[in-house]
Automatic annotation (TrEMBL):
Protein name according to UniProt: D-lactate dehydrogenase (cytochrome)
Cofactor(s) listed in the protein's UniProt record: FAD
Listed InterPro entries: FAD-bd_oxidored_4_C (IPR004113), FAD-bd_PCMH (IPR016166), FAD-bd_PCMH-like_sf (IPR036318), FAD-bd_PCMH_sub2 (IPR016169), FAD-linked_Oxase-like_C (IPR016164), Oxid_FAD_bind_N (IPR006094), Vanillyl_alc_oxidase_C-sub2 (IPR016171)
Source organism of this protein record: Limobrevibacterium gyesilva
Entry similarity comment: Belongs to the FAD-binding oxidoreductase/transferase type 4 family.
Length: 459
């Protein structure tokens, strides 16, 4: 007797042809993201190119009760894309059209598979840029689905603040448009932001209307180094509390800095706790912001600012920051990495980071600290020893760091999302009643539970 998934595959193949594949290599590629969760292959991978195709695949899978797991570039870090119950991996990476750019209104509409770096390459000649910059070259659809951010969020907001509207294919195959092009609207429920952060569990995002920003007249970057991690963190808190509108402020502890020096060949830097800054604005405002930040850093014993004013030097600095994850993995070849993603109110940042530093020391594991600290968000990349108890020790450390962040009024994830890895913390963070309301939203939009099952909720 044929399985429901076989019937679904046959029906999808009728209109996708060879874009529906059961090739073993492609199924393996879609069995995991950049995480340590056990991989599970989908039964098939469907490469769609339009919203209408997304709707047709979903309608068929809904009829047959077959799971559908959207797949952007597979860079997520919590097991998000693993099809734990098999079914169809719905790959949007061929949806790469920038559909329109409205320079006068500073917005654009893209298909979900466009990546943030491709979009910025497309926009550069028009004096515009899209600021949300996760370290991986993720798809805009995946970034919406995980509610991503990056180094620029402290000044320009996360993807949530930069999405104006969406096209979404629902579980039953209907395709809807949410939001619009205007900067604000007071009409109806905010469905756009319901889908942002829904991790492929409520619908498949196929097109996105985005806010854009003007490339600033002037930009400058700097690094400064400290004897202690505490001094670096106190500098961040003081800079943010002083209201200096930094574009980026990133912290790297001594271990992470050592890893970046080795991996990215950073010259003139020492393996010490380090802050990376970037300032945007007019020539005058950039100079003013930089002077204020330098004064504050000096009062916490910074070893002097080193400026990177040329575009090439700035790019090298930020490339090194974006490659921090790979630099960590290169520290111990053969180890996998679990990235924690805790976030706390800025006033509690020192407690959270210094507490994490103590936890890491007590664990005996290597876990560099790096973070978008201007938002109160920091990561530790816990290197998992390839020993039988390695993964258990790593998760134990992860739990301690999360528990402290929650106790300080924070969240278990500032930007990576829940996926599989953070499900157990949701009830503590949001409360049982709130979680029950989230579940009822899920049931309303996806009554048969076909969309990315096994994610966000524990069961
Ligand atoms: C080196 C490195 C650095 C990173 N740095 C950052 C960082 O600074 N900030 C940050 O936020 N994240 C970061 N990440 C995590 C990752 O890049 C983000 O989570 C990103 O948003 C995932 O996008 P993606 O296209 O790879 O999505 P995928 O991994 O393919 O999918 C992620 C989730 O979204 C769903 N999904 C994907 N596309 C759609 C769609 N069109 N419609 C509905 N659901 C969809 C999937 O089902 C899955 O649940 C980093 C990852 C790596 C490997």
């Amino acid at each position: 007797m044929s399985r429901p998934v076989d019937a679904a595959i046959a029906a999808i193949r009728e209109f996708l042809g060879e874009r529906l594949t059961t090739n073993a290599g492609l199924r393996e590629h879609h069995s995991h993201g950049q995480d340590t969760q056990p991989p599970v292959s989908p039964d098939a991978v469907a490469f769609i190119e339009t919203s209408e195709e997304a709707g047709r695949v979903l309608a068929i899978c809904n009829t047959h009760g077959v799971p559908v797991v959207p797949f952007g570039t597979g860079s997520s870090l919590e097991g998000h894309v693993t099809p734990v119950r098999g079914g169809i991996s719905l790959d949007l990476s061929r949806m790469t059209q920038v559909l329109e750019v409205n320079a006068a209104d500073m917005d654009c509409r893209v298909q979900a598979g466009v990546t943030h770096r491709t979009l910025n390459a497309h926009l550069r000649d028009q004096g515009l840029f899209f600021p949300v910059d996760p370290g991986a070259d993720a798809s805009i659809g995946g970034m919406c689905a995980t509610r991503a951010s990056g180094t620029n969020a402290v000044r320009y907001g996360t993807i949530r603040e930069n999405v104006l509207g969406l096209t979404v294919a629902l579980a039953d195959g209907r395709v809807i448009r949410t939001g619009g092009r205007v900067r604000k609207s007071a009409t109806g429920y905010d469905l756009t932001h319901l889908f942002v952060g829904s991790e492929g569990t409520l619908g498949v995002i196929t097109e996105i209307q985005l806010r854009l920003h003007g490339i600033p007249e002037a930009a400058s970057a700097a690094i400064c180094q400290f004897e202690t991690l505490g001094d670096a963190v106190e500098t961040v808190i003081a800079v943010m509390q002083a209201g200096i509108p930094v574009a980026r402020i990133e912290l790297l502890d001594d271990v992470q800095m050592g890893a970046c020096i080795a991996y990215s060949k950073l010259e003139d830097a020492l393996p010490l706790p380090t802050l990376f800054f970037e300032f945007h604005g007019t020539e005058a405002s950039v100079a003013e912001q930089a002077t204020s930040a330098e004064e504050i850093a000096g009062s916490f014993g910074a070893r002097g600012f080193r400026w990177a004013t040329g575009q090439e030097e700035r790019n090298k600095l930020w490339r090194a920051r974006h490659d921090a994850y790979w630099a960590c993995l290169a520290l111990k070849p053969g180890h996998k990495g679990i990235a924690t993603d805790a976030i706390v109110p800025i006033s509690r940042l020192a407690e959270a980071i210094l507490g994490a530093q103590d936890d890491i020391a007590a664990s005996g594991l290597t876990a560099p600290i790096v973070g978008h600290v201007g938002d109160g968000n920091f990561h530790t990349v816990i290197l998992v020893p390839p020993e039988p108890d390695g993964i258990a020790r790593a998760w134990e450390l992860d739990k301690k760091i999360v528990a402290r962040a929650l106790a300080l009024g924070g969240s278990c994830s500032g930007e990576h999302g829940v996926g599989i890895g953070k499900r157990e913390f949701l009830e503590v963070e949001h409360g049982a009643e709130t979680l029950a309301v989230m579940r009822s939203v899920k049931t309303t939009l996806d009554p048969r539970g076909i969309l990315n099952p096994g994610k966000i909720f524990l069961n």
